[in-house]
Design brief:
heterotrimer; A mainly alpha; B mainly alpha; C alpha/beta; A: mainly alpha; 8 helices; B: mainly alpha; globular
């Protein structure tokens, strides 16, 4: 929802010229995705931390890493996935051609997933901190930048009709790196956050 | 046995405090000396660059600040890791003391870079990989300091910010190698590479001396901040009372 | 089974736990008493591993609890101030999921536990709609259901009526009879046989 609003506000404020919009489209889509992601990340652990169930996860004797990974995945399925799948609507509003949609969606799928994984670390660290939401954005931003760079590049290439394989591979590599390391870091972060 | 005593001393706040107090003037003095000589060498003695004329002299401030911004972050991350693994209070204090210094050096690197960019490239700022990732480094510093400030319990603040520092260290190699991996407007490494440095000897020694000067300056300021940090953390301990009377 | 040795913990500036030590064997109930802010909750959380003591160690079955954390946690049930229940789910569903991640649990077992703690009548209502006392009964059912050896209870009788308080005493007695171990932070003492009790008073000495 937020993503849609952002995507429609950009043409309003920038320019209605289609070619200019198309150039700006990767940036708009990705910034919208990033902001939506940051908003959603606040709620990844918050409810469970508040009602005490996150603590019970940490005390269950089961791997906290896997449990948080599962939580992050479901969180992504409810936030990142819909975002990537509805992106074509926003992209079309920005003048992106039909053939490019596949590339746009693919890059956003991979990128938003990586963002959720990495954001979980910040979400764990900021549990119980003052101004947690703002802090979370500040912490996640530097870690999300590589995702943003490659993702936007992939989207840009897709729109321009180029080969999106190179940045997609890099994005995939980041996602895999995130997949292996981020849940571990998130579990450590949550344990620190619960103190 | 001797190494254990040394390690034990390193972990003990009163010893570190005494060490810092004793050595700060030396580091500060030598830093000032090195910087003055280097400035003279760089601004007066070194010949003009055939391409950039005098504008290249900005390298004497820009390059050291940039190197130090990376080095300080790495130091901070190592101190944080030591604090997390061996649970040393002094290590956490050192990491906390590093952060503002590192942030200022990053601002310095970005600022001098902007001032240099105008004559070199015609623009104060370009969104190229090295500049952007240096900016990201600044955000990392801010994030670290923000996280520390946002958590009430000091032990939890130490641990959480330490984790952040360690996770963020991945940004340092990205900055360092960004000029090689991507096409960038920024110059590639002229000094820190395998083989002979590409820079002319007359231009090189003031640069290296300036780097040394900044490094000593950083250590001096770190020791001062570390003392303040230790006093604040241990304010209820008896050694603090003795030191302050 | 549970040995706490010389545990010191600071919360910010306050030296909350000052060298706490005790030995708890099977069939014993360790009662932690003391005023508000004396450190009862802090000690329980430190034993559970949620807090890291600056000095001292916690041993479970002879080995440091921190080194075999997951195995220690598998034998432990922790009940804090707030019953850890998700408001949108019913009591039954809550228990199915929270115990389900620890071990396979059947509906019959869940029902038996809920009946024991007097929560069966409202077992299907969303937890959000229950009173504080009812929620605590559900949480107690969870503790019983966990099959844990060590029970860490932080003021377990909060919000309970007289019947509820008797229930807690009975549950603890039954657990001790099964060779379990209970560490409980309480405001009033529990009427248990003296040989089963270890009382520890916390607070500035």
């Amino acid at each position: 929802m937020f993503f849609m609003i952002v995507a429609t506000l950009f043409p309003l404020t920038l320019t209605p010229e289609m070619s200019r919009l198309r150039d700006a489209a990767p940036g708009v889509l990705w910034i919208g995705a990033l902001l939506s992601s940051l908003l959603a990340l606040e709620f990844l652990f918050r409810d469970d931390a508040v009602d005490g169930t996150l603590e019970q996860f940490a005390l269950s004797g089961q791997s906290l890493t896997w449990m948080l990974f599962a939580k992050t995945c479901t969180h992504w399925l409810l936030t990142g996935l819909p975002l990537a799948l509805t992106a074509p609507i926003a992209a079309a509003a920005l003048g992106v051609s039909f053939e490019a949609m596949g590339g746009v969606v693919a890059s956003l799928l991979l990128g938003s997933f990586a963002m959720s994984l990495v954001g979980a670390i910040g979400a764990g660290l900021t549990l119980g901190a003052r101004r947690g939401g703002v802090l979370l954005s500040l912490l996640t931003l530097p870690l999300a930048v590589p995702i943003l760079i490659f993702g936007a590049r992939a989207t840009q290439l897709a729109i321009g009709g180029g080969d999106i394989a190179p940045p997609m591979y890099l994005l995939g590599a980041i996602a895999v790196l995130g997949l292996t390391l981020a849940p571990l870091a998130a579990a450590a972060a949550v344990r620190i956050g619960l103190e | 046995m001797a190494t254990w005593t040394w390690f034990h001393r390193l972990a003990s706040p009163p010893h570190v405090y005494a060490f810092a107090r004793r050595w700060t003037p030396w580091f500060g003095g030598f830093a000032a000396l090195a910087m003055v000589i280097a400035l003279y060498g760089g601004l007066v003695l070194a010949p003009e660059d055939y391409q950039q004329k005098d504008a290249f002299r900005m390298v004497y401030v820009h390059a050291p600040t940039a190197w130090l911004s990376l080095m300080i972050y790495t130091t901070m991350a190592i101190a944080a890791a030591v604090g997390l693994i061996w649970r040393m209070k002094v290590a956490h204090a050192a990491a906390a003391a590093c952060a503002p210094i590192g942030a200022w050096f990053t601002v310095g690197a970005l600022g001098t870079g902007m001032l240099w960019g105008k004559p070199m490239w015609g623009a104060y700022w370009v969104w190229d990989p090295r500049l952007t990732s240096e900016l990201v480094l600044l955000f990392l510093y801010f994030g670290y300091m923000g996280l520390r400030a946002g958590i009430e319990d000091p032990v939890k603040a130490d641990k959480a910010s330490a984790m952040l520092a360690v996770v963020g260290v991945i940004n340092v190699p990205i900055i360092k190698f960004s000029v090689e991996w991507w096409n960038s407007l920024h110059q590639t490494a002229t000094v820190m590479q395998l083989g002979k440095p590409k820079m002319n000897g007359d231009m090189l020694w003031p640069l290296l001396l300036m780097l040394l000067g900044f490094l000593l300056y950083f250590i001096a300021v770190l020791l001062i901040r570390l003392r303040a940090e230790l006093l604040r953390r241990e304010r209820n301990a008896s050694w603090v009372r003795e030191v302050l009377t | 089974m549970l040995t706490v040795q010389g545990v010191h913990l600071w919360r910010g500036d306050r030296h909350v736990l000052r060298g706490v030590s005790f030995d708890g064997g099977a069939g014993k109930c360790v009662l932690l008493t003391g005023k508000n802010g004396a450190g009862k909750t802090t000690l329980i959380r430190a034993i559970a591993g949620l807090l890291d003591p600056e000095e001292g160690q916690v041993f479970w079955r002879g080995t440091p609890a921190r080194s075999r954390r997951d195995e220690f946690h598998a034998e432990l049930a922790y009940l804090g101030h707030e019953p850890p229940l998700k408001g949108d789910l019913s009591a039954r569903e809550n228990l199915k999921y929270s115990i389900g991640i620890r071990r396979a649990v059947t509906t019959a077992e869940i029902d038996a536990a809920l009946t024991r703690t007097g929560a069966i009548t409202f077992a299907d209502r969303a937890v959000r709609m229950l009173s504080a006392g009812q929620r605590r009964r559900v949480a107690l059912a969870g503790v019983v259901l966990s099959n844990a050896v060590l029970w860490l209870l932080d003021e377990p009788t909060t919000n309970l009526d007289a019947d509820g308080q008797q229930l807690v005493r009975d549950l603890i007695s039954e657990h001790l009879a099964r060779a379990g171990l209970v560490v409980a932070a309480v405001h009033h003492s529990l009427p248990l046989p003296a040989e089963q009790l270890i009382t520890l008073e916390l607070g500035p000495s």
